[in-house]
Amino acid sequence: MKVGFIGLGSMGYAMAEQLRSAGHALVVYNRTRERSERLLGRGVRVAESPAAAARYADVVITMVADDAAVEAVTLGDDGVVAGLSPGAVHVSSSTISIALSQRLAAIHAKANQGYVAAPVFGRPDDAAVKELWVVAGGPQAAVDRCMPVLEALGRGVTRVGESAPAANVVKLVGNFLTGSTLEALGEAIALTRKAGVDFTAFLAVLLEVFARPAVLARFASVIANDQYEPAAFKARLALKDLRLALAAGDAMQVPMPLASLVHDSLLTATAQGRGDFDWSVIARLAAERAGLGSR
Amino acid sequence: MKVGFIGLGSMGYAMAEQLRSAGHALVVYNRTRERSERLLGRGVRVAESPAAAARYADVVITMVADDAAVEAVTLGDDGVVAGLSPGAVHVSSSTISIALSQRLAAIHAKANQGYVAAPVFGRPDDAAVKELWVVAGGPQAAVDRCMPVLEALGRGVTRVGESAPAANVVKLVGNFLTGSTLEALGEAIALTRKAGVDFTAFLAVLLEVFARPAVLARFASVIANDQYEPAAFKARLALKDLRLALAAGDAMQVPMPLASLVHDSLLTATAQGRGDFDWSVIARLAAERAGLGSR
Amino acid sequence: MKVGFIGLGSMGYAMAEQLRSAGHALVVYNRTRERSERLLGRGVRVAESPAAAARYADVVITMVADDAAVEAVTLGDDGVVAGLSPGAVHVSSSTISIALSQRLAAIHAKANQGYVAAPVFGRPDDAAVKELWVVAGGPQAAVDRCMPVLEALGRGVTRVGESAPAANVVKLVGNFLTGSTLEALGEAIALTRKAGVDFTAFLAVLLEVFARPAVLARFASVIANDQYEPAAFKARLALKDLRLALAAGDAMQVPMPLASLVHDSLLTATAQGRGDFDWSVIARLAAERAGLGSR
Amino acid sequence: MKVGFIGLGSMGYAMAEQLRSAGHALVVYNRTRERSERLLGRGVRVAESPAAAARYADVVITMVADDAAVEAVTLGDDGVVAGLSPGAVHVSSSTISIALSQRLAAIHAKANQGYVAAPVFGRPDDAAVKELWVVAGGPQAAVDRCMPVLEALGRGVTRVGESAPAANVVKLVGNFLTGSTLEALGEAIALTRKAGVDFTAFLAVLLEVFARPAVLARFASVIANDQYEPAAFKARLALKDLRLALAAGDAMQVPMPLASLVHDSLLTATAQGRGDFDWSVIARLAAERAGLGSR
Question: Which domains, from first to last, does chain A contain?
Answer without folding.
Answer: 2-168 (3.40.50.720), 212-289 (1.10.1040.10)
